[in-house]
Amino acid sequence: MPENTSLPWLLAGPILRKIEPSRISFWLASSAGGPLRLTLQPEDAQQQVLEINSDDSGHSRLLQAGEKLFFHLISLDLSSPLPVDRRVDYVLERQQDGKGWIDITSEAPYLLYPNQNRMTFRVPGEIKSILHGSCRKPHHNSGDGLVAADNLMADLMKPGPREDPLPPHRPSLLLMTGDQIYADDVAGPMLIAIHDVIARLGLFTERFDLAEHEDYRTSDKIHHHDYSYYRRSEMLPKLQGEDDLAKVFFGGIRKPVFTSDTSDNHLITLAEHLVMYLMVWSPVPWEFADTSPPDGLSPKQSARYRRERQIIRSFKEGLPQVQRLLAHLPTAMIFDDHDVSDDWNLNREWEEEVYGHPFSKRMVGNALAAYLTCQGWGNAPTEFPTTLMEHLDQTLKQPGSSEHDEFTDELLRFEGWEYIWETSPPLTVIDTRTRRWRSESSRVKPAGLLDWEAITDLQQMLKGKEAVILVSSAPIFGVKLIENIQAFFTWLGKPLMVDAENWMAHPGTAHAILNIFMHKRTPRNFTILSGDVHYSFVYDVELRRHNRGSDIWQICSSGLRNEFPKTLLDRLDILNRWLYSPSSPLNWFTKRRRMRVVPRRPEGLEDGRRLLNGAGIGLVEFDDQGRPERIRQLLTNGEFRGFERMEHHHQYR
User: Fold this and answer.
1) Helix extents (H) in 39-171
2) Which positions carry the signal peptide feature in this UniProt record (predicted)?
3) Omega within 30 of 0 (cis) for the link into 385
4) Predicted confidence (pLDDT) per residue in 188-209, tens digit
């Protein structure tokens, strides 16, 4: 590592999280601690100045993960409520060794939009529009949906009238519906950069006392092992029996039917997971990260490294805009499988094998600890138990201790990842990964995405509301042909081969969630926002009964930086149209036959097509009753694609 001890103070952020009239919450990472000062200047209202000290009580925390890595989890009560849906300018300053206050934008001027001298936000009240997306894989060879969103924000910040295709309003919030990181699918240059940043920031060494090999007993040894790049599956221990843990833990990633992704650089240590978030949200760590290829790569690995390096260079170029976007829009997040590992909690077999060994169990715990630090806390800053946050603090300071193992068990038991933002309509985000309805008949059958207790809790949250925005990482109403392919492989006992996770895969979950939509006290207007699948689509769903119930819009936007294999998706789209046409008898064999599903055609595609394949971000505009008024996908080239309702292609499902 070059001898350069000078590091920027701001490493990542600020990221606006849950913003309410009486409370503001945000996240940032820095190379040093110290006091902060926040100045809020609402439009036509009184200025507020708040000083933030590391020893403050309440819901703010300063977490130290290394000699030069601090996470600021700031949540502040305000003396005067902020106006809703009005512009608020804000200035965030740090104190420099008694030399006074320094505006962080003076050191990172790219955080400001053109002709702007302060960062800004709006407290979301009545939701006018939402940006939403999922699946942001740094080494996928495409543009970045978050960069496209920042370009849109820059256009909306310009003075003067707005003309179509620009929306009339600044988005109320940004919603990231899963796979904000790919812990299981990491490019070689990315992992090399992560290890260099870990060393420069002095992240604390993690012990793996129960690792079977001495070579894997500390994080430092893992980071420098011969297997550390492109051979990580070989680090996992053997299980008793015919399978090794690599096959169970990583086997689902090798799915020849849909994707060729591999897990050869799967994140393992807590430090790797934490630094990954810095690398995907900020350009700053890349400024001092060394990505020189390691010694010992095979010719095949060297060629792969060179390909990945070219794509990563393109990814890095957009990070100043990503950091700027996240500093100006309140951002909600929820995990999906790749935030931890592909097919996370798919079935009982996966859970029994992975959680049954301390090494792989620690890997999952590390991913969840990093998620809590960088994503989960900001969704509900006042709701996480004090003891949980104290145990997180201890774990970051002493990774690998007995307290770390106890904290992993605590995280695996935790059932508070779902949350509600009381906007209009309310944003209700469900956890489809950790509260699963496990199959009792077979350990290999996919678990339901929510168990009975979780579905009951959801029904209680929804009762009495006129409209709701419901966030499910996986679409509730998916592409029927693809779901049936998944069911076929499950019948063969191979659910890992095709990522067989959908709401209809488990009979109990399927009937329970559909009954929620049929219940007379659930909302009149349901907007379901989803991701996960690497293509985008929109379905209008109506109940088939005399006393018409809820109107449902299933809107899927995926991925921010990922796409489905084009030829395969084209064929599946066409086959799905023919096999599940309005007159097809196959519709009567589905669990949704009491519902009328009307697909929408993406603009620019021929009649009958339903699936849009292209990296980008979804933009949904709502009317004053909380119903989607205009649904579009903003592609990374700046082009908007709307979705046209195809009445003559409806399905009874």
Assistant:
1) 104-107, 145-156
2) none
3) no
4) 999 999 999 999 999 999 999 8
pLDDT digit string, tens, across residues 447-501:
889 999 999 999 999 988 999 999 999 999 988 777 667 554 544 455 444 455 6
For residue 187, the one-letter residue type is A
- Contact assessment for residue 161 and residue 584, using Cβ atoms and an 8 Å cutoff: no
Mean pLDDT for all residues in the chain: 89
Q: Identify which of 255, 653, 296, 230 has the alpha carbon closest to the alpha carbon of residue 481.
A: 653
Helix (H, G, I), strand (E, B) or coil at 579: helix
∠ at Cα 305 (301, 308), nearest 5°?
135
User: What single DSSP character describes residue 293?
Assistant: P
Q: Does the residue 213 lie in any domain?
A: no
Nearest CA-CA partner of 85 in 14, 8, 19:
19
Question: Which residues, in sequence order, are bridge partners of residue 532?
Answer: none
Which of 106, 53, 52, 104 has its CA nearest to residue 78? 52
Neighbours of 116 (CB within 10 A): 14
Structure tokens at 640: 């908007």
3-state helix, strand, coil in the chain (%, to 5): 35, 25, 45
pTM of the model: 0.94
Whether residue 110 is contained in a domain is answered as: no
* Rounded Cα gap, residues 293 and 309, in angstroms: 10
Number of domains in the chain: 1
Is residue 328 domain-resident?
A: no
Structural domain boundaries enclosing 511: 131-178+417-653
Please, are residues 185 and 195 in contact by the beta-carbon 8 Å criterion? no
Ramachandran quadrant class, 380 (left: phi over 0; alpha: psi -120 to 50; beta: rest): beta
User: At residue 239, does pLDDT exceed 70?
Assistant: no
> Is 556 among the domain residues?
yes
